[in-house]
Predict the 3D structure of the following.
Amino acid sequence: MNRNDVTEKIITVKVSKGIRWEDVARKVGESKEWTTALCLGQMTASPAQAKVLGKIFGLTADEQKWLQVVPYKGSLPTPVPTDPLIYRWYEIVNVYGSTIKELIHEEFGDGIMSAIDFSMDIQRQPDPKGDRVNVVLSGKFLPYKTY
């Protein structure tokens, strides 16, 4: 057994029981975005969070321990994503990445946006021309230091 096996079990139970990530997140006590990343193997659960997930997904004590192991982050199977939805994010970064970089540097200076001190919010935005996906990414600015 490994972390990927636990992720597969979580997804299998989610599908078979018709569970929604938002409902899981409410029970875990974190955002749906972070909780989904946890369940998909990209975050580390506390013992209490692992126990909650164990109840929801019928995980054994050993499977709950795997949720508490720091994962190898980065879940894409190929350098260029082939899933159409994920590919669009790749396309956004290819087209707008230099613009995002330029505007962040102009506003904040030389540094990066943290993906560690970070939050994300994904919401449906009703629109008469077709609903929109509203994604807000918020990361702490980390300036490069001199030494």
Notes: The first strand starts at residue 111 and ends at 125. The chain has a mean pLDDT of 96. The radius of gyration is 18 Å. The helical segments are 3-17, 21-28, 32-39, 47-57, 61-67, 84-108.
